[in-house]
Amino acid sequence: MALQKGDKAPFFKLVSSDFKSANSDKKEVSLDDYKGKNLVVLFFPLAFSSVCTAELCSMRDDIGEYTALNAEVVAISVDSPYVLDRFKKDQSLTFLLLSDFNKEVSAAYGALYENFAWGMKGVSKRSAFVIDGNGVIQYAEVLENAGDVPDFDAIKKVLNELTR
């Protein structure tokens, strides 16, 4: 059954890169790190693809709006942490990219293609979730068409309601 508003967000602990250090130390990031904060979780199919790049660069360009709405942002894909490290640096992304290389979190959120383009299996579906500070989903959007992007206006509207 698909996740929806009011559901408890599935726990995650994934590998990220600490892109602030010279040696790009890897670190684990979990849902618990965001207790008491609003969190936007984006799942995206593949780093460096055109739609994913446009989507995440749009988020980068609007990050001030999300910060003003008291929200943190993370983006998750099944790419390796090393690919995500390069993608983040190349696109000057200002939020964490998390590797779900084992595909467990994407599956838990109902955001995993069994079959994707070119015969690839187990790729994250483009999806967006807003999780409140209590770990409850306030917005859920899982897109079947990888060419579509989440409704960022709807996401901002939900975040605005949470900050009231």
From TrEMBL:
Query: Keywords assigned by UniProt?
Result: Oxidoreductase, Peroxidase, Redox-active center
**EC assignment:** 1.11.1.24
The residues covered by the Thioredoxin domain are 3-164
GO molecular function terms noted in the UniProt entry: thioredoxin-dependent peroxiredoxin activity
Q: PROSITE patterns, alphabetically?
A: THIOREDOXIN_2 (PS51352)
Pfam families, alphabetically? AhpC-TSA (PF00578)
Enzyme class, broadest EC rank: oxidoreductase
Q: Does the keyword Lipid metabolism apply?
A: no
Protein name, as recorded: Peroxiredoxin
Which species?
Xanthocytophaga flava
